[in-house]
Amino acid sequence: MTYDILLSETDIAARIEAMAKDMAPRLSDDTIGICLLSGGIWFAADLTRALARIGLGIGFDSMWLSSYGDGRESGEMILRADLQRPVQGKQVLIMDDVLDTGASLKFARDHLLRAGATEVLTAVMASKPVARHIEADYVGWEAPKRYLVGYGLDDGGRLRGLPFIGALD
Cβ(4)–Cβ(62) under 8 Å? Predict the structure, then answer.
């Protein structure tokens, strides 16, 4: 399988460090980081470590969302696994791999606000140039409108573990 490398492992690390420094003044140790599974785990792990390196030890939890029923995108968002800890009265930071249409990010934000979060911030590693339901507060990289893989982005569940972001098209 061949792909174009669009963002190297070194570039990803530098962008995440810059994001952490940019968002740090707005966060506190009481902030709860929420990883959107499955793709967001690589970004969330690296971002929370970058925040820890600058002195912020935010909490961590995850949500598993899906918009796929029979293998095709249905447009209906399903909450497959909810948070393990309450967010009532807390600031939360949603972390995800890519912002495409924004359906999952919007669903997660609305769900967390209904659960009592006082503020919901959003951070994504990549943002594609498409019409969407929501914009992210923090973006690591403005991605091209291509089929991306690696660093959490998959092709049928494969290639998420590549240490860079590539394009398959």
Answer: no
CA 35 → CA 60, 70, 82, 116, 129, distances in Å? Answer: 8, 24, 11, 18, 22
- pTM equals 0.92
Arithmetic mean of pLDDT over the chain? 91
Which regions in the chain score pLDDT beneath 70?
68-75
Dist. CA 154–CA 22, nearest whole Å? 28
100 is catalytic: yes
* Among 22, 100, 110, 154, the one annotated catalytic: 100
**Do 5 and 159 meet the contact criterion of CB atoms below 8 Å apart?**
no
Q: Write out pLDDT tens, residues 117-130.
A: 999 999 999 999 98
Relative orientation angle of helices 9-23 and 41-53, to the nearest 10 degrees: 60
Token pair listed for 30:
């009481």
DSSP string, 1-49: ---EEEE-HHHHHHHHHHHHHHHGGG--TT-EEEEEETTTHHHHHHHHH
Residue 134: phi and psi, rounded to 5, are -160, 155
Neighbouring CB atoms inside 10 A of 109's CB total 20
